[in-house]
Design goal:
With about 350 residues, the protein is of the alpha/beta class. Helix content is about 40%, strand content about 15%. It contains eleven helices and 13 strands. The chain has an eleven-stranded mixed sheet with strand order 7-6-5-4-3-2-1-8-9-10-13. A two-stranded antiparallel ribbon has the order 11-12. Helix 1 packs parallel to helix 9 and helix 2 runs parallel beside helix 3. It is globular and about 50 Å long.
Length: about 350
């Protein structure tokens, strides 16, 4: 078998070099701003609670110590503040499980929708009833993401910790695609489900998905307690070979993607202008789900002030640069950072 890992690494490195050269050229020519004076993309982690207990959850949603200080009313207040300050292009709705907010979820989305914002919704779809799908139809989407981690109930339900969750996810995803909303399936690849990647792609195609994202588990959150979820070097190479094979087989039918290499993704963020970040359930404004840096808390300071004071150039902070440089290739786990532990306040 070819060394697909090295092939993908070479492609990633070339893409980074091309991005760097294009960004430099565009800035010199005046075709790209030197900085964004307000976020263009924000992710709302609406709650720290979840109705499932996934073995790999990076932020341990649903654990007793997950603090949710951002009430639905506070999220609405933040949304109105964002609109007043000029608005954002994209809002990523996630959690925990965002559908746990019930009708309040749509109140938050309505405020941004009326200002022209488009959405990405990330859900386990357990609560995604046909009635809720009808309400979701009104919004503009980059995509609507449903997590399905097995081609059958046994694998998915064991991984997600709740019996019946596979059936709910499959039916919810089907309702989304039938409603004309662009569907993406997110599939966490583990040694257990790796042999069935082809069946998972087939299922996603049958559900009407535009794309499937095949993601490796990174050692973070609950995954620290489940090393059996991590792919070996040989398994990772097999996954990449299957992506290449299935991409040819399903060309023009469904897009088959892998999650970005961690170091490459961090380098990409550092090259581009900082465009946003994640607002967490406790109000923290975090740079990224895998970069352990916080630039402020919106329960203490206005979002715009946080952005102007720290957000604009946060990816060029020496501590962030050191973090990116610390990400080294590990034959057992792929590219992982040396930093493990609490978030760092910039």
């Amino acid at each position: 078998m070819k060394d697909y890992i090295k092939i993908n690494q070479a492609i990633d490195k070339k893409n980074i070099q091309d991005l760097k050269e294009n960004m430099q050229r565009l800035k010199v020519e005046g075709g790209y701003p030197k900085r964004f004076t307000y976020p263009t993309i924000l992710q709302f982690e609406l709650t720290g609670q979840c109705n499932l207990a996934c073995k790999h959850c990076y932020n341990r949603s649903g654990d007793e110590d997950r603090e949710t200080l951002m009430t639905p009313d506070k999220w609405c207040e933040l949304a109105r503040q964002i609109v007043k300050d000029g608005g954002i292009f994209q809002c990523i709705i996630s959690g925990g499980e965002p559908l746990l907010l019930g009708d309040k979820l749509f109140d938050i989305m309505d405020i941004l929708h009326d200002d022209g914002t488009s959405f990405v919704v990330i859900t386990n779809a357990f609560l995604l009833t046909p009635e809720k799908v009808k309400r979701f139809v009104k919004y503009r989407y980059f995509w609507f993401q449903v997590s399905i981690d097995g081609h059958c109930a046994d694998i998915h339900d064991s991984f997600r910790g709740v019996p019946g969750s596979w059936k709910r996810a499959v039916y919810g995803a089907l309702e989304i695609s039938h409603a004309g909303i662009p569907l993406v399936i997110a599939h966490s690849v583990t040694p257990q489900n790796l042999p069935y990647v082809d069946k998972m792609v087939e299922l996603s195609y049958q559900l009407g998905a535009n794309s499937i994202i095949l993601g490796e588990i990174l050692p973070s959150g609950r995954a620290f307690q489940h090393s059996e979820l991590l792919l070996s070097l040989e398994q990772r190479n097999y996954l990449y070979s299957m992506i290449a094979q299935l991409s040819k087989e399903y060309a023009g039918k469904i897009s088959i993607n892998r999650t970005a290499d961690l170091k490459i993704q961090m380098q990409k963020y550092a090259i581009e202008n900082n465009s946003g970040g994640i607002i967490r359930p406790n109000g923290d404004f975090r740079l990224d789900c895998m970069a352990p840096f916080i630039i402020g808390n919106i329960l203490k300071d206005r979002l715009k002030d946080i952005w102007i004071n720290k957000g604009i150039d946060a990816w060029h902070d020496a501590r962030v640069t050191d973090f990116i440089n610390s990400i080294q290739f590990n034959e057992q786990h792929g590219n992982i950072p040396n930093h493990v532990g609490s978030d760092i306040l910039l």
